[in-house]
Amino acid sequence: MADKVLSYEERLKWFHEARFGMFIHWGLYAVHGRGEWVMFVERWRADDYAKTAWKFNPKKFDANKWAAIAKDAGMKYMVLTTRHHDGFCLFDSKVSDFTAAKTGAGRDLVAEYVKACREAGLKVGFYYSLLDWRFPGYFEPKKYPESAKKMVEQYHAQVRELMTNYGKIDILWYDGGWIAHDPNSNVAEFWRSAEVNKMVRELQPHIIINNRSGIEEDLDTPEQHVTASKPGRGWESCMTIGDSCGWGYVHNNPNMKTVTLLLQNLTIAAAGEGNYLLNCGPRPDGQIRREEQVRLHAMGEWLRVNGEAIYGSQRCSLSGGMLGVWTRKGNTAYFCIHRYPGTGEAIVPLVKTRAVSASILATGDKVTIRQEYNGRLVLGGLPKKPVDPHITVLKVEFESVPESITETDKAAWLSGSV
Ligand code: JFZ
Question: Which pTM was predicted?
Answer without folding.
Answer: 0.97
